[in-house]
Amino acid sequence: MRNRYSRYGTALAALLLVLCLFPACGREPVVKTVLVMDTVAQLTARDGEAAAAVDEGIERLQYLDACAGTGAEGDAARLAAAAGDGTWVDITPEVYEMLKVARDWAARTDGAFDVTMGPLVALWGIGTDHARVPDAVEIEDARSRVGWQDLELAPDAPRARLKRPGMSIDLGGIAKGYALDDVRAIFERHGVKDGMISLGGSSLCVLGKNEHGEDWRIGIRQPRGETAQDYLAVLPLTDAALSSSGDYERYFEQDGRRYHHILDPHTGAPAASGLYGVTVVVRGAHAGMTGDLLTTALFVLGEEKGRALLEGTGTDADVLFVAPDPARPGACLLSAFSPDGAPPLPERLQKQAGNVRWE
Ligand code: AMP
Ligand code: MG
């Protein structure tokens, strides 16, 4: 008898072991990494049809790259080719949606976020192998061909036109965010409960929990860190989109000056608002797109005008402004904006680096 019991005991222990392991096995995430939208995209999904969700997500990113990117077949190239000749250009519904939202935010930000920045972005070429500092005449010429008021959108169909010759759009400040929302919807349709969609780390969206059943832990970059893994702090996050913009993402240096990729439409030069960077957390519908364009806009506006924008528009976003600390070279001064009722961001950040100070 004792033997039989011990055999049952062993079988029961084995069964329990299998039962304990099985859910863990079933919860192994599917992770895929691809180069798309000019960045490294990593899609992680668990539960539901995780593999199908990730594959469809990647296809979607590639499709959006083709419509919203700078390729010859993309909507931007076709709009630029017809600029000034009065004809309406059929564009994809996705780019039409981005342009509508971009135009609303251009109006709200007094043009600090301007999707018709194409001529200036091309002139500076930051992030390409022909990046250079243009002269004042060139800047003025490009600037004269920028202006969101001259982007016309047909009210009833996905069609657009640029009023003046030489105009062009650039969706670099909004397309990744739009893509996050689209891929998140794909994940949700496939029953994915836990997942992350990361587009280069600077625009990402998280669903549910990480592999330890905890909130995802997102590192916020130290803007003067030696590597992209050098963090100012770690933010636990669930069901939200996070976006960062800063002067450390794409830049070159000349004569001791840094020229980065976020341009001020009013000066035609890299924005000089006194910030190293901005990080925004947004929840709910269109969280990815709102977060993406907001970081770019806030970086151009700077902290003071940025806070006024957030208050004036009632935008439900947590914002972290990161600036150089005037008292300590190389160190950072942080300040946060949280929507009414939300626990303040500084209380939620973990593992804060030593060389930062809160304002
Ligand atoms: P992000 O890294 O999200 O801040 O987006 C920066 C990208 O947006 C740049 O690489 C440009 O393609 C584009 N961009 C630069 N300046 C502006 C601006 N003032 N408004 C809208 N888009 C911009
Ligand atoms: Mg952005």
Characterise the protein shown here.
Among the domains are: 70-162, T-fold; 215-358, T-fold, CATH 3.10.520. It contains nine helices and 18 strands. It has helices at 2-26, 50-68, 75-81, 93-108, 118-124, 136-143, 175-189, 287-313, 345-348, and strands spanning 30-36, 39-46, 89-90, 151-153, 159-162, 194-199, 203-207, 216-221, 231-237, 240-246, 251-254, 257-260, 263-264, 269-270, 277-282, 317-324, 332-337, 356-358. The strands form five sheets. Strands 1-2-6-7-10-15-16-17-18 form a nine-stranded mixed beta sheet, covered by helices on one side. Strands 3-5-4 form a three-stranded antiparallel beta sheet, with helices on one face. It has a two-stranded antiparallel sheet with strand order 8-9. A hairpin with a 2-residue loop joins strand 1 and strand 2. Helix 7 crosses helix 8 (287-313). The longest helix has 27 residues, at 287-313. Residues 113-115, 117, 121, 170, 172-173, 245, 249, 261-263, 265, 292, 295-296, 300 line the site of adenosine monophosphate.
Relevant terms:
T-fold; binds magnesium ion; alpha+beta; binds adenosine monophosphate; three-stranded antiparallel beta sheet; disordered N terminus; about 350 residues
Structural class of the helices, strands and pairings? alpha+beta
CATH topology description of the domain at 215-358: T-fold
Rounded radius of gyration (Å): 23 Å
Taken in chain order, the helices and strands follow as HEEHHEHHHEEHEEEEEEEEEEHEEHE
Distance between the termini: 73 Å
The CATH C-level class name of the domain at 215-358: Alpha Beta
Poorly predicted runs: 1-8, 15-25
| Helix count, DSSP H or I runs of 4 or more residues | 9
Can you tell me the CATH architecture of the domain at 215-358?
Answer: Roll
Q: Could you tell me the strand content as a percent range?
A: 25-35%
CATH superfamily descriptor of the domain at 215-358: ApbE-like domains
Bound molecules: adenosine monophosphate, magnesium ion
Quaternary status of these chains?
single chain
Sheet of most strands: 9 strands, mixed
Strands side by side in the biggest sheet: 1-2-6-7-10-15-16-17-18
What is the number of E strands? 18
